[in-house]
């Protein structure tokens, strides 16, 4: 079978500094973007306290926050 060549033009991934909440426990590597976090600042995986930090992540649009 022949599937042809894939489109070689990939969309450019834009990286930006993003505020995230990371788990403070050394045994857990859970984190979430601030835009998607609820007001509960406990890690959903282990229950430890979340700490705010900045990471360079791909830019995504959060349409939910546009309607707040």
Sum this structure up briefly.
This protein is mainly beta and about 70 residues long.
Notes on the protein architecture:
A three-stranded antiparallel β-sheet has the order 2-1-3, with no helix packed on it. The mean pLDDT is 84. It has one helix spanning 63-66, and strands at residues 15-23, 31-33, 50-58. The radius of gyration is 17 Å and the shape is elongated. Helix content is 6%, strand content 31%. With 68 residues, the protein is mainly beta.
- The counted number of beta strands is 3
Please list the strands of the largest sheet in the order they lie side by side. Answer: 2-1-3
Low confidence ranges: none
SSE sequence, one letter per element? EEEH
Radius of gyration: 17 Å
Structural class: mainly beta
User: What portion of the residues fall into strands of 2 or more residues?
Assistant: 25-35%
InterPro entries: YdjO
Protein name: Cold-shock protein
Organism: Peribacillus muralis
Pfam families: YdjO
């Amino acid at each position: 079978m022949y599937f042809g060549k894939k489109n070689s033009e990939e969309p450019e991934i834009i990286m930006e500094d993003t505020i995230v909440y990371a788990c403070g426990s050394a045994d857990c590597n859970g984190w979430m973007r601030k835009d998607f976090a609820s007001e509960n600042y406990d890690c959903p995986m282990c229950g430890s306290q979340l700490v705010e930090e900045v990471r360079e992540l791909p830019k995504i649009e959060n349409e939910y926050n546009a309607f707040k």
